[in-house]
Amino acid sequence: MTLLITISRSMSPATYGLATTILIVSLIGIYRRNIFARLLLHPYSIIHQREYYRLFTADFVHNDLMHLILNEVTLYVFCSDLEEVLRRKSEYGSWQFLEIFFICLATSNILYTLRYRNNFDNSSAGSSPSVMGCLFAFMIIDPHGTAVNFAFIGGVENIYTGLIYILLLIYYKWRKGNEMINHEIHFYGALGGILAAFVVSPPTLF
Question: 0.90 cut: is pTM over it?
Answer without folding.
Answer: no
